[in-house]
Amino acid sequence: MSPVLDCRDADQLLPALRQARQAIGRGELIVMPTDTVYGVAADAFNASAVARLLAAKGRGRQSPPPVLVSGPDTMRALVAEVPEPVERLVERFWPGGLTIVLPAQPSLRWDLGETRGTVAVRMPNDRFALELLEETGPLAVSSANLTGKPAALGIDSAVQMLRDSVSVYLDGGLVETGVASTIIDATGLVGRDRRPVTVLRDGAVSRQGLRDVLGDLLEPDPVDPEESDAA
Fold it and tell me: What Gene3D superfamilies would the database entry show (predicted)?
């Protein structure tokens, strides 16, 4: 059975960080708490580790994982360009529950799956997660669950689903929000053919919150079918 280490225990915190960092360095998987849901993580620059992550969840390469970063500077190193509206989103919602898809830096040598030249990045609002990211660098992280099952809000459900496919489990207690991050596609803000920012998944950051920052740069809200049928 893979070890479960309680990050809330001061005596276990440093050993937990060390074991998690070592597991990542060996190309293995860990489960870690974040501010949204528990995540299963791998070294973003280790293609075999990322493939192991997808296999553990029962996913294929068509579902590449997002990348968690310790701050905006790391994001800027991973993407080709950060448009000014995205800078405003980062200032408003990071660290927090907003994942942003942008064109990836073409010089990076990594393989997250079928990304079509993009990367989804987020800075989590969780002290332990940020400490770990400072030590490991960017991590490919997806929700700690089997595909089709609810995301893990506590360590026990993550262990039950992922078992020995994960080398180290980091227990941070029950997740406070339990709401997955909002994912937006901001690739349309890069290049000449400007397109609105689109919401790929509704989550912790509301569309109204996004619109407060982006204004008309955000796609129109979905039309309620009942409203569209009204006279």
Answer: DHBP synthase
Residue 110, Cβ neighbours under 10 Å: how many? 18
Q: Which residues of 89-109 are buried (b: 16+ CB within 10 A; e: fewer)?
A: bbeebbbbbbbbbbbbeeebe
Task: Name the DSSP class of 118.
Answer: E
Taking alpha carbons only, the member of 151, 198, 213 closest to residue 179 is: 151
Q: How far is CA 103 from CA 4, 86, 123, 124, 186, in A?
A: 36, 12, 17, 20, 9
DSSP 105: P
- What is the pLDDT of the chain when averaged over all its residues? 94
Alpha carbons 180 and 97: distance in angstroms, whole number? 7
> Of 119, 162, 133, 120, nearest to 35 (Cα)?
133
pTM over 0.90: yes
Q: Residue 44 carries which DSSP code?
A: T
How do 39-43 and 198-201 pair as beta strands? unpaired
Strand order in the sheet with 30-32: 4-6, 168-171, 30-32, 39-43, 139-143, 67-68, 118-122, 98-103, 182-185, 198-201
- pLDDT of amino acid 153: 95
pLDDT one-digit tens code per residue, 160-206? 999 999 999 999 999 877 899 999 999 999 988 789 999 999 999 99
DSSP code at position 182: E
